[in-house]
Write a structure and sequence with these properties.
Shape: elongated
Strand content: under 5%
Largest sheet: none
Order of helices and strands: HH
Radius of gyration: 14 Å
Number of strands: 0
């Protein structure tokens, strides 16, 4: 039962982190409305990576989200 609790907490933490990244991207996109769409897609790629990766990245990593 302890394993399931730990798994649930891990998934919940990852979902909260992805939600924070998604909210930040929505704010960043506001001034980029006139920019090419590729920038918007690249920003949403960060959220996709955060949701798909089953493990957290080290804090010193260049790809830390």
């Amino acid at each position: 039962m302890r394993t399931l609790t730990t798994l649930f907490q891990t998934i919940l933490n990852m979902s909260v982190a992805a939600s924070i990244v998604a909210a930040a991207i929505m704010v960043v996109r506001l001034p980029l409305k006139k920019a090419p769409k590729i920038f918007s897609y690249a920003l949403w790629g960060f959220v996709l990576i955060r949701l798909v990766m089953p493990f957290p990245l080290p804090a010193g990593s260049a790809f830390c989200l």
